[in-house]
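Lecture notes, unit on protein representations.

Consider one protein chain, 403 amino acids long.
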Amino acid sequence: MPTATTEDVRAALRSVMDPEIGKPIEEVGMLKDVHVEDGTVRVTVLLTIAGCPMRDRIETDVTAAVSPLPGVDRVEVVLGEMSDEERGALASRLRGGRPEEAQFFTDGKTAVIAVASGKGGVGKSSVTVNLACALAAEGHRVGVLDVDVWGFSVPRMMGAVDQKLTAYDNLAYPVQAHGVKLVSMGFVVEEETPVVWRGPMLHKAVQQFLGDVYWGELDFLLADLPPGTGDVSISVAQFLPGAQMLVVTTPQEAARKVAERAGKMAAKVRQSVVGVVENMSYFVCPHCGERTNVFGEGGGREAAATLGVPLLGEIPLTPALREGGDEGTPIVVSDPDSPAGEALLQTARALASASKTMVRKPLKLTAPGSPGDGNGHAQGHDHAGHAEHAAHDHAGHDHGHAH
């Protein structure tokens, strides 16, 4: 019976991916050595850090890849740790060997959706996490950037409130939940900690969430913006010049007017609006099935007409949607066949179609004080540290990692 050679083992290991980086362990320099002798295969894998949370997964995947080879009776996986030089080389490889840049996801491969509401209380974050999970369920590679720095809620809504970002050599890796990559201030500070930051520090935090994080290849990046049109929204527009805005509103007149204002901001920063989602559109009685328009009706459709974009979805008001957010299991995961789950899945499909096919031109709106050059260049500090260092002075041209 033929016995597997060292090259056979290496070929089998090319299917083993690092769970965080999403690339083969051999490609990223984690496969240090393969030794084959008398039916025993010893594979030495270098972890990025000794306490890597994915070490058991890597050991299992290596064993599963090598065990079926002919003549293999035993697989030994030796887990070591990269040296500082090896970690530095990995970080440089992941950045593509290019210098840091101040704009991200500009190659057209990732649809960047900035989810805005203009005002709080309309369920913007709930819509964001459910759309992200729905897109992931459709087979897309999805990330959520929680840039609501003061009011971050994505970690809790995604059941990841106790997790932290894994980082080394000034490069962090997103937390993953429900098949979605997540980055949030909630993974840097404790949930109860207030973030009392002003413009420059907020700007730096956004830059680091984009530039100091290895997002990997994404089909969609959803940025959960804070309410309003303040500093963070402007920073996102600068760092993500190709982003399209998704406006979330509720049916009532007051919310619609503010949502339209948020949508019109897109023109000022030379972005386009991909569509409108109306949340809390109606309530269906669980006993008799009667539909009640608790917050009025038609606001989302009117906002979409005003902005000249499609109404992508109308999401019903239901206790289960709120419960899913509190419990960390979005309703599209826990009950996709429910009225709200189905509405969100349909909305996600409409968003995917619209974002991939629309011509990315700014709205034909004019307003006094519109920026003249619209080049989206960010100004910041040249230090590439972690998000908790965002309080450094805001000066010089900002750096980031090109994707």
